[in-house]
Amino acid sequence: MIPEPHDYLSFLMGVDASSDHELTDLGVKILQGANTPFRGLLVPGGNLPAYKALIRDKLTSGFWNDILGRHEILFLFKLEDGTVRELTLSEVTRPEIARLCTSLNNDPIEKTSEMPRYLAGNPFYREVIETFPVHAQA
């Protein structure tokens, strides 16, 4: 699926304490995995701040959530100590994002350095990744 210009896709996991009802109350549409710990979501752009606040609050330490728009990729990492790091993929942030993904998911740095190809390993994101502008595929 390719979201509308101001909407986002997010594959939610690591947020076991969040109910479908909490998400739909935020205006988030559950596209896959309703009532499961692994949910494919459509997040309207206007609801993105509320969705990110929910993630910051409910994400389990040691997990991250990625949020893909048509022209940007956002990451919220919750480190083991509970610290939350929010980063937008760019040439400047790519090395830090790759290091965080490697440390939290035990994937080799060579694999996590290839964003967004790394994320395209999730079929939920594949279509939107294929349409990504070349400059964003840092």
Describe this structure in words.
There is one protein chain. This protein is α+β, with helices and mostly antiparallel strands and 138 residues long. The protein has one domain (8-133). Helix content is 30%, strand content 22%. It has 5 helices and 6 strands; from the N terminus they run E-H-E-E-H-E-E-E-H-H-H. It has a 6-stranded antiparallel sheet with strand order 2-3-1-4-5-6, with helices on both faces. It is globular. The mean pLDDT is 90.
Major β-sheet strand ordering: 2-3-1-4-5-6
Helix content: 25-40%
Low-confidence stretches at least 5 residues in length (pLDDT < 50)?
Answer: none
Total DSSP helices: 5
Mean pLDDT: 90
Shape: globular
The number of domains: 1
Order of helices and strands: EHEEHEEEHHH
Q: What Rg do the Cα atoms give?
A: 14 Å
| Beta-strand share of residues | 15-25%
Distance between the termini: 22 Å
Major sheet summary line: 6 strands, antiparallel
Helical/strand content category: alpha+beta
Number of DSSP strands? 6
